[in-house]
């Protein structure tokens, strides 16, 4: 505190300060991209998991009905279509066979 003015920056010092600022900005952008990508990945994973759990809730009913239609196949056209549709849902939801 002698009242002297600070020394003026040299070109080398100014260059180093500019590089440091660019590094900070680059790291900020990289971190932002990583967190954004992670957020999208997590949201997609959570949505798929929720959809799969929702599908699995139907498996008990579909398995029971599919097994019943396999044991005693329907004879009417509407019954056959219903049995085929239930079997298709059973397969698309990747349900296991009903336990006796």
Summarize the structure.
This protein has 100 residues and is mostly helical. The protein is rod-shaped and about 105 Å long.
List the defining traits of the structure above.
single chain; 100 residues; mainly alpha; 3 helices; 76% helix; rod-shaped
Task: Give Rg in angstroms.
Answer: 33 Å
Helix-strand category: mainly alpha
| Helical coverage, percent range | over 70%
* Unreliable segments of 5+ consecutive residues: none
Shape: rod-shaped
Continuous helix count:
3
Order of helices and strands: HHH
Give the termini distance in whole angstroms: 91 Å
Mean pLDDT: 84
Number of E-type strands: 0
% residues in beta strands: under 5%
Please summarize the sheet with the most strands.
none
Layout of helices and strands, plus pairs?
Layout: H1 11-57, H2 59-71, H3 77-92
Helix pairs in contact: 2-3
Explain how this protein is built.
By secondary structure, the protein is mainly alpha-helical. The protein has helices spanning 11-57, 59-71, 77-92. The radius of gyration is 33 Å and the shape is rod-shaped. The protein starts with 10 loop residues before the first helix and ends in an 8-residue tail after the last helix. The model has no long low-confidence stretch (mean pLDDT 84).
